[in-house]
Amino acid sequence: MSVERATFISQEMTAKVKKRNKLSQTIGYIFVWACAIMAIVTVFWIIGYVLSQGLQVIDYEFLFTRPAGGVSGDGGISTTIVSTVYLVVLTLAIATPLGVGAGIYLVEYAGDAVKESKLVAWMVQVARTGVEILAGVPSIVFGLFGFALFVLYMRLGFSLLSASLSGAALILPTIIRTSEEALLTVPRSYREGSLSLGATRWYTVFNVVLPSAMPGIVTGIILSVGRIIAETAIFWVTLGGSFYLPQSIMHSGRSLALHVYMLASETRAFDKAMGTAAILIVTIVVLNLAINLISRRLTAKFSGTR
Amino acid sequence: MTSNENLSIKKPLAVELFTKGLSVLIAGVGLAAILMAFYVLMAPLLPETFQHEILLQIGNLYYAAAFLIIGGLALITARGFWRYRNWARVLVLIGLLIFILYYFVTIVFAILTTIFAGLTVVPFAIILRVVGMGLLFFLINAGLPIVIMVLLVKVDQFFIESARQREFVEQTVRYVLLGSALSAVIIVILIFVFTFNEAWESITLVGLDTMLLGTIWRPGSIIGNENPQLGLVPMILGTILSTIGAVVIGVPLSVGTAVLLAEVAPPSVREIFRPAVELLAGIPSVVYGLFGMVVMAPLIRNIDVPRNTGFGLLNASIILAVMIIPTVTSIAEDAIRAVPREYKEGSLALGGTHWQTITRTILPAARSGILAAIILGIGRALGETMAMIMVIGNSIAVPRPLTDNPFTIILNTARTLTGNIAVEINYAAGPHRSALFFTGVLLFLMILIVNSVARLVMRSNKEA
Predict the structure, then answer these.
(1) Hey, where are the domains in chain B?
(2) Under DSSP, is residue B81 helix (H, G, I), strand (E, B) or coil?
(3) How many other CB atoms sit within 10 Å of the CB of residue A153?
(4) Given a cut of 90, is residue B1 above it in pLDDT?
(5) In this structure, how many other beta carbons lie within 10 angstroms of the beta carbon of residue B329?
(6) What is the pTM of this model?
């Protein structure tokens, strides 16, 4: 075989291979675009469907009257809105101090404490593992735990308090992680500046570090609000599901998400369930937008100072 | 600096008057509380005319002790406040805050009850009146405390703290923070202890083998039956099958999306797609369930197979797949982005196309991260509850194909472990309830194992 002939073949083959590669690349691109577009279409299909069906139901009366109860599914959702607000506020009141405190310890104190004694070092390790495990616990198990400990053992009954305590266990890892991350972004020089001026550790943390980390911590709290609003399984087991307005934290209530489930499973009022779900979705979208806004501001701020 | 030096700071007359006056007031409250304690203790001995309904209600030792403690604390605080001690100021602030919060919560409860509790819409005029009255009531009760609080915050420069007290505060804060850091692990232990404790009855009474290998779940048979039928095999199968379905549908979608977001798509597309996918994570599971009931079920019912209800494994798998998309996508995307630039550059420099680079270089390098993403997605799918109850049909039989075609098993109804708990816990009692708690323990352990595997895979990736 002559040299020219061989060159010709190899050129031809390269062209073929190139063509094939090009084709496979096109097919691959089409595949990933199809995947992503399917995912996006699903998002908009679900949200669009629920909103288009649900917004028809929502009016002044729907928002300001309580569910009538029974199997008809009549009435509005006023008490479930208020119950959800109570639940969110109470849960945050329990989980935020604990979670932010834990984040502060793990970021600001754990480093020194580990040097001090082996016991503390071990406890810090255990605490970190605990957060990791807790973050993976499925919500129905939180529900079982709340049912066994708060409802039965501590005799709090089906109440806002039992539900909030169980819900606080759910959002605790989220708050700990986000506040840890937020505290880690605060530059070292802030702490050193404050400490070198003679401020104590706690004064520094509370007056210098915490304010700088606040946007990140607020992001974590908004995230937790979303989780509490979306959570159903825990409250199905611990909140009781009364459609009256809770008069105190020892009373039973019904959150919006729980109301959706109860309407869908116990009545045939799918339209009202859609209306309630639409309100849930609007809330979640607004919360997500808020988180995006805050994190965008944060990146802008930090890239500005650098 | 010692406290004596600080005391000699000249204080304005107004501050002097405010502090002394307030400490007298606190002392008065303390004295009143102590008197009350004695009064409560003596209540049964008092003549009939002094007896009162409220007194009888609180006429016991606990209340007396509580009053004594409050009174003592108030007196000590008053003395510290008189001498400009900072700890006393902080205590007074906390007390006032509790007082104000109490009234605030009461008013909010009252206002919201009037507006939202009824079956009819409350007229706007009445809402206005209630809100106005509530505000007035709040101001009357909490107005003065609020003013005092503001003043207390303003005068903080005149209050002193010794080095020892400061050290004490430091140490206390440190231990309180350590306590909150341990709260997560304490909750994990409590979860384990309480669910296991409740599950113990079924383990001893029914037996592990019956529950793990039994194929019949008939909790009603417990009453007057020697052999309670509490086999969990149908639910275990339901959970596993629906999860496999979710992985089969959801993982290619998620990984494809992750590749697009990390490698292919221009930044502008990414700006829109990423938040949209993240939004999926926030949507409540009941909304997915509702969507499954109202939209997916009628669609699936169109498949022409006898006894196809539209509810069942297929519906559950589709809904679960959508629910794991955000988890898998975001973690897989991070893993793909974590692949060193040089790998990509090397492959491209050798003449590989972008797509060859992705499939032959980037994806193999990000393999363990993507695997971890999938495993975490499985963990999320295993734990999903409400959406599953709404779309899977909740039958307690072992899922079987509907016709001769084995694939029709996906159209059959089933029940997940999570659903088993949620459906029955509200009315279960005795061994039945205990068996449900055992279901929870099983689920907890399964997810613990799955998540640990994911973490191991991730860690091995980091070390490699």
Answers:
(1) 3-160, 217-463
(2) helix
(3) 12
(4) no
(5) 32
(6) 0.89
Q: Give the chain A residue whose CA is nearest to the CA of B393.
A: A265
Contact (CB, 8 A) for B414 and B313:
yes
CA B415 to CA A95: how far, in whole Å? Answer: 33
- Among candidates A83, A140, A22, A132, which has minimal Cα distance to A259? A83
In this structure, chain B runs to a length of 464
Judge: A46–B278 Cβ closer than 8 Å, yes or no: no
**Confidence (pLDDT) at A112:** 81
Residue of A nearest to B271 (CA): A292
Q: Which residues contact B296 (CB under 8 A, 6 or more apart)?
A: B310, B315, B318, B319, B391
DSSP B121: P
- The mean pLDDT of chain B is 88
Residue B240 in contact with residue B318, Cβ under 8 Å? Answer: no
Interface contact B117-A133, CB threshold 8 A: no
Size of interface A-B (CB pairs under 8 A): 306
pLDDT score for B223: 57
C-alpha span between A207 and B176 (Å, rounded): 18
Per-residue tokens: B86: 């900072």
Give the residue ranges of chain A where pLDDT is below 50.
305-306
Instruction: Scan for tokens 């100072």, then name that residue.
Output: A305
Six token digits for residue A113: 């404490």
pLDDT in tens, B389-447: 999 998 888 888 888 888 888 899 999 999 999 999 888 888 889 999 999 999 999 99
Instruction: Give the total residue count for chain A.
Output: 306
Give the list of residues 6+ apart from residue B22 with CB closer than 8 angstroms, or none. B81, B92, B148
Decide: helix, strand or coil at residue B389.
helix
CA-based torsion, A121, A122, A123, A125: positive or negative: positive
Residue B313 confidence (pLDDT) above 80: yes
| Pairwise CA distance, residues B64 & A205, whole Å | 40
CB B376 within 8 A of CB B331: yes
Positive/negative CA dihedral, A109, A223, B376, A181: negative
For residue B132, pLDDT over 60 is answered with yes
State the average pLDDT over residues B67-71: 91
The CATH fold assigned to B217-463 is: MetI-like fold (1.10.3720)
In this complex, which of B181, B182, B273 lies closest to A36 when CB atoms are compared?
B273
Is B437 in Cβ contact with A35 (below 8 Å)? no
Q: Does B115 sit within 8 Å of A66, measured CB to CB?
A: no
Q: Cβ contact (<8 Å) for B284 and A257? A: yes
% of chain B surpassing 90 pLDDT: 53
φ/ψ bin of A93: left (φ > 0), alpha (ψ from -120 to 50), beta (otherwise): alpha
| Closest residue by Cα to residue A124 from A137, A114, A132, A112 | A114
Q: Which residues in chain A have Cβ-Cβ distances shorter than 8 Å to B120?
A: 65
Q: Which one is predicted more confidently, B265 or A164?
A: A164
- Between B4 and B129, the more confident residue is B129
In 3-state terms chain A splits into helix, strand, coil percentages (rounded to 5) of: 80, 0, 20
Residue A42, CA distances (Å) to A37, A281, A288 in order: 8, 14, 18
